[in-house]
Write a structure and sequence with these properties.
Number of strands: 0
Order of helices and strands: HHHHHHHHHHHHHH
Number of helices: 14
Strand content: under 5%
Structural class: mainly alpha
Radius of gyration: 19 Å
Shape: globular
CATH architecture of the domain at 1-19 and 220-276: Alpha Horseshoe
Largest sheet: none
Distance between the termini: 7 Å
Length: 276
Amino acid sequence: MNNYHKFSISFYSFNLLENMNIVNFVNSAILRTAYYEESRSNFEDAAHYYAKSAALVRDNPLSAMRAVDLLLNDAMSDKNVRISKVSAMIKNLKKEAAAATANAELKFRLGYLYFKLPDDLDVLGSTLESVVMELKYCLAVDNKYIPAYAVLRAVYQRMGAKDKKMYALALDTLKKAAELIDHKNPYLNVELGDCYYYYYAQDYKNDALEYYKKAVMYKPDFTEAHFKIASIYRIKKDFEKAILHYGIVYDLEPNGVNAQECKKSISTLKRRHMIE
C-alpha cells in the first residue's frame, strides 16, 4: 500500500467518524433495507423505503428518484396493462398534489414520472415542457428542494440535443441554486459536476472532478460522488486513485447499487495494471 492510499484511508476514516450522526445512521439502515428489497425484486417495498430515505434526507435526489423509478418499472412490466397502470399512477399523483398544494415532493414525483416515461407513452403528457412545468411548480412551493434542480438539470441537458444553449441553462440553473441554498451542499456540488461531465461536445472532466471532490469534502461518506471520482480517474488512467475511490464506495455500501460494479472494476484494474 503506497503513501497516497495510507493517507487517504486515514483521512476518510477520521472524517467518517467525525460526520457520523443519528440521521446518517438511520438513513443508512433504511437504504440497506431498500437495497435488500430491491435485490429480491420486492419493488413496491423497496420504493417505500427509498421514499422514507428521501423524506429523511430531503436534499438527496437519488432516493427520491429511485422511489418513483421502481414503481414505474413495476407498472411497466406487463405490456398488456402498462398504459392503464401508468395512467393510474399519474391520476393518483395529480389528485394527491391537488389536495396538498404545499407539498413540493408530490409535484416533484409527478414531474419526474413524466420525465421517465418512454417516448411511446407521451400521450400521457410526458413532454419535456410538461416536466419543466411540474418541476417549476415544485420549486415555487419550495425553492430549496434539490431533487427538482437535479431533474431540471437532466431535462435541460436532454433538450440540449436540439438546442445547445440548454447546456448553459442547466449550468446556470445549478449555479443559481447553489447561491440560494449553500455552495457547500454536497448534493448540489454533484449536480454541478454532472453539468460539466455531460456538457455537449466539450471535455470538462477536470471541472467535474473538482465539484465531485468538493462533495466528498463536505460529505466524506457520499458514495455517489466517490463513484464518479473513481470513474474520472479511470478515464484519466490514474488507476490507483480510481481503485481507492471504488474501494471506498464498496466499503461504505457493500450491498449498494454500485457495489458489484466497484468490486469488478477494482479486480479488473488490479489485474490489468498489476497493482497490489
